Amino acid sequence: MEIRPAATEDLDQLNDLYNHYVLHSHVTFDIRPLTMAERVEWFRHYGETGRHRILVAVTGTQLLGFASTSPYRPREAYETTVETTVYLAPDAIGMRLGSRLYAGLFRAIDGEDVHRAIGGVALPNEASVALHRRFGFTQAGHFSEQGRKFGRYWDVVYFEKPLP
Ligand SMILES: CC(C)(COP(=O)(O)OP(=O)(O)OC[C@H]1O[C@@H](n2cnc3c(N)ncnc32)[C@H](O)[C@@H]1OP(=O)(O)O)[C@@H](O)C(=O)NCCC(=O)NCCS
To answer: How far is the CA of 132 from the centre of ligand 1 (A)?
Structure first.
């Protein structure tokens, strides 16, 4: 198993992995699967330096998961805050891969001009809540019924992590 920056060749599997959660889970508030054209455009925002990174976990040619730091909000003063995301293939869950991806992600942005990391977790999601707490995130807010999917409303907890 290897953790490395994502490459264009990973995007097909990455999009399939993410779209699984779009279709079958409340953990993402996307409702419609992303097309590959949208995914390729999304990928342009990441680099191998700077604040916005994306790492993948792979064995051979099989993608097991990814984690990223993305812009939190477009207005300029928010630029020192990033939003973190992590998704594993369903059969890769529960083997500490989420922790390894987050560890790699925080190593990658170490030394970059990032002051806060934010993670939004739609509830329930015990694994994600535990992962964020393990990485030093603390709960900053709990919004009720912030999204509607599958015909019901879902709460979202926001976690924040101070960075130097
Ligand atoms: C959330 C996710 C990335 C966590 O990755 P993971 O590899 O399964 O988690 P890890 O094995 O690294 O465990 C991290 C921590 O969470 C805990 N944990 C894992 N699964 C758990 C569960 N189902 N319930 C409670 N705690 C759990 C672990 O014990 C560990 O805590 P510890 O270090 O204090 O022992 C993974 O479950 C996943 O991809 N889920 C589906 C997509 C998703 O929900 N993404 C997050 C959107 S906010």
So the answer is: 9
pTM of the model: 0.97
Q: How far is CA 18 from the centre of its chain?
A: 10
Residue 95 half-sphere exposure toward CB, CA atoms < 13 A: 12
Which CATH number is 2-116 given?
Answer: 3.40.630.30
Closest CA to 163 of 99, 108, 81, 100: 81
pLDDT at position 98 is 98
Residue 120, pLDDT score: 98
Question: Which residues surround ligand 1 with Cβ inside 6 Å?
Answer: 21, 27, 86-88, 93-99, 121, 125-128, 130-131, 134
Ligand 1 centroid to Cα of residue 131, in Å, is 5
pLDDT tens readout for residues 68-108: 999 999 999 999 999 999 999 999 999 999 999 999 999 99
Kindly report the protein residue whose alpha carbon is nearest to atom 1 of ligand 1.
Answer: 128
